From TrEMBL:
It comes from Methylocystis rosea. Transmembrane segments: none annotated. InterPro entries: HI_0220.2 (IPR047124), Uracil-DNA_glycosylase-like (IPR005122), Uracil-DNA_glycosylase-like_sf (IPR036895). This is Uracil-DNA glycosylase family protein. PANTHER family: URACIL-DNA GLYCOSYLASE SUPERFAMILY PROTEIN. Residues 38-204 form the Uracil-DNA glycosylase-like domain. It comes from the Bacteria.
Length: 213
């Protein structure tokens, strides 16, 4: 497979990490804290975790999924933390690079609107070696399915998209749609036992294939 030079990837990654658009020239409300873009990429990782946006704990540490959601995601994937953070094998790219802050109900706001049009197309052009995308949540699913020519119906729920996971196994790159591993989704997981019974074994097998050294 064609590979883009590591230098090009390093350049765009450095620009993303230095970005201050949402604080200095935002679209709408200014970011309520200092920007801290979080992502992990390399020219060798074949597995991409495409997520929504960092949470507050991630903003404080600079480490993606450094929270209970990350523990659950590791379990879903069948990997330990050391493997999860091996950037040579697993890339992590959220739809919004900075923690967006909280809404009035105390939940995380959606990903910042500045990130996707400014950075994502160029970043993924510099990651042609990605073979499988684990698309976590609707924001990541909308973007990656559309980018790969499989736009999703606006009316489809995350549950409906995840339930169709077998349909996406022939895509290139292959796409695994997942719900967010947040504690807020415990009820959804209990109501949908097929996710643990059918989706997770296939996901773990694919992860194991991609991270083999």
């Amino acid at each position: 497979m064609r590979r883009v030079s590591g230098r090009k990837l390093d350049e765009i990654t450095a620009r993303i990490r230095a970005c201050r658009v949402c604080a200095e020239t935002p679209e709408g409300v200014k970011l309520p804290h200092e920007p801290r873009p979080v992502l992990r990429v390399s020219s060798t990782a074949r597995l991409l975790l495409a997520s929504q946006a960092p949470g507050n704990l991630v903003n404080l540490t600079g480490v993606p999924f450094y929270d209970p959601s990350g523990d659950r995601l590791c379990d879903w994937m069948g990997v330990d933390r050391e493997t999860f953070y091996d950037v040579s094998r697993i890339a992590i790219v959220p739809m919004g690079f900075c923690f967006p802050g909280y809404d009035a109900a105390g939940g995380d706001l959606p990903p910042r609107p500045e990130c996707r049009p400014r950075w994502h197309d160029g970043l993924f052009a510099a990651l042609p070696q990605i073979e499988t995308i684990v698309a976590i949540g609707r924001y990541a699913q909308d973007y990656h399915f559309a980018r790969l020519g499989h736009a999703l119906p606006r009316s489809a729920s995350v549950a409906e998209i995840v339930a169709r996971w077998r349909e996406f196994q022939s895509a290139t790159p292959l796409i695994f749609p997942l719900p967010h591993p947040s504690w807020r989704n415990i009820g959804w997981l209990k109501r949908n036992p097929w996710f643990e019974a059918d989706v997770l074994p296939a996901l773990r097998a694919e992860v194991a294939r991609l991270i083999k050294t």
